[in-house]
Amino acid sequence: MPKSKEQCEKMRDDMRSKILKESSMYFARNGFGDTKISDLAKHIGIGQGTIYLYFKSKEELFEEIRFTADNKDEIKKIKLLNKMPIPAKVKIDKISEEVCKHLADDEEYCVRITLQTQLLLEREDMYADDLYKELAKTIKQGQKEGSIIKKDALYLADLYWGNVYLYALKRLFAKNIGALEKETLNRLLEK
Prior knowledge:
Blueprint: H1 5-30, H2 37-44, H3 48-54, H4 58-68, H5 72-83, H6 88-105, H7 107-122, H8 130-145, H9 153-173, H10 182-187
């Protein structure tokens, strides 16, 4: 019996989603430059031509992945926290708790963190990213309150997010990695 139009559309949507998800993991592991469509297709378990049915080029596929790997949600949450009249130590604890929870439970979050960091490293001024700037605001508040160590706030933000990135990589590519504890992240910043 022939498939209905709806069934065909669902199959196309499912295949596109599969390509995006599996490609995200592959790009996170290998980077853009070291990814070949033929190797990617083997990784996914489909023919090369199938990828080209959905995306004109590796660049188009990667651009779609970049679009979905944004960090807008994290930035929005930190901005909201920064507006709240609570101590910076509490804000950092909340950020660390959320990050650690996602790192432990959400593989796609780990992929996004990995890809976001790779994309930031390609920028001329990665510290201009809102994720760094917003955490630096929280750090500066904590320095004024006396709860955060006295160092350059962007340096400390980089130290914090660098550790998150390394842990995300470990979660994706190493076996038997224990959970990152929020206290570990907090200790990077607190006195």
